[in-house]
Amino acid sequence: MKKWILLILVSAVVLQMPACLPVDEDIDPDDPITKFLGTWKVNETCVRLNYEVEIVPDPGNSAQVLINNFGSPGAGYDPAVGLVVTNSIFVSSQTIGTGWTINGKGTYQSNGTISWTYTLLINQVEYNCTAVYSR
Prior knowledge:
Number of helices: 1
Number of domains: 1
Structural class: mainly beta
Strand content: over 45%
Shape: globular
CATH topology: Lipocalin
Order of helices and strands: HEEEEEEEE
Oligomer: single chain
Number of strands: 8
Radius of gyration: 23 Å
């Protein structure tokens, strides 16, 4: 009988405990940049056909993101800096490495992709590109 009472008491205590689920307090689901964050597969029309990019928050500006491997320049290049305004990322003209200048715009689509139009200037050769980022 004592075992049953002990079992009931332990069960009651356990049921009263809140579940401990990890919460990433740094990510706000209402923040416009949230939908852009993560690793994306890229299907591009100009320099490279398929590669991946990673979009992360810019620690220096909460309205901006950093796009690692934008245009697939390879190792050692800086990330592109993009300003997020509602459903778009604006990449103003910037140099991300030796001989690479970029600018363009990506728009988040209702199907969960990002549609891009941008210009790559690589060693004085200009490429007008379109790309689709998907997960």
